[in-house]
Design goal:
With 190 residues, this protein is an alpha/beta fold. The chain is built from 6 helices and 6 strands; from the N terminus they run ββαββααααβαβ. It is globular.
């Protein structure tokens, strides 16, 4: 039995390439854990068939820390998040102050991450249990490990179309889970 969370389910088909699209908030640690698990289950040529859009926004440990704090702020009105930072990562994406996969390879990466953390620290103060130093160090380690999987999704899709190959593109979680189509209870009496 296979379990997919971040990785596209098309990986179980050995004849299909897979692209994690730019609409995804991408958790690097979760990616490598899930990849290793599927590889140990015998998924063939998994490393050659998974690609990540360079435009995916990164989901940091910072986002997970903030997710828990914002959920706690809601008290009895909690929305029941997974506390994995998905909502806050999408928030930074929408606000245009999030970092993308490609930012990891630019000099400004550390500065941008520090600025993001500083903004959250202003809001949550000492309640925010997060080390920007640890995060920077982790991502320096991921930098080269991640490089072989990263593609410009537009160029990649053009090549796929021209080569008449099969590819599965997954973006976000599902239509009803994106920031444009979140299901809400619209009954004002509730």
């Amino acid at each position: 039995t296979y379990s997919f969370h971040l990785l596209p389910s098309g990986l179980i088909n050995p004849n299909v390439d897979n692209l994690i699209g730019s609409g995804v908030v991408f958790n690097v640690e979760a990616f490598f854990k899930e990849l290793a698990r599927l590889e140990s289950q015998g998924v063939p040529r998994i490393h050659q068939r998974i690609h990540i859009s360079s435009r995916c926004h990164l989901n940091f440990a910072l986002h997970a820390a903030v997710d828990g704090l914002s959920e706690e702020e809601l008290g009895t009105s909690q929305i029941g998040t997974t506390r994995k930072g998905i909502g806050p990562a999408y928030s930074t994406k929408a606000a245009r102050d999030g970092l993308r996969v490609i930012d990891l390879y630019h000099e400004s990466f550390e500065q941008k991450l520090r600025l993001l953390a500083e903004g959250y620290r202003k809001r949550y103060g000492l309640l925010l249990k997060y080390s920007v130093e640890d995060e920077v160090e982790r991502f320096q380690g991921y930098k080269e490990q991640l490089r072989p999987y990263i593609v410009d999704a537009v160029d990649y899709m053009k090549a796929v179309q021209g080569g008449n190959r099969s590819v599965l593109v997954e973006s976000s979680q599902a239509l009803s889970m994106t920031e444009c189509h979140v299901q809400r209870n619209e009954n004002p009496a509730d």
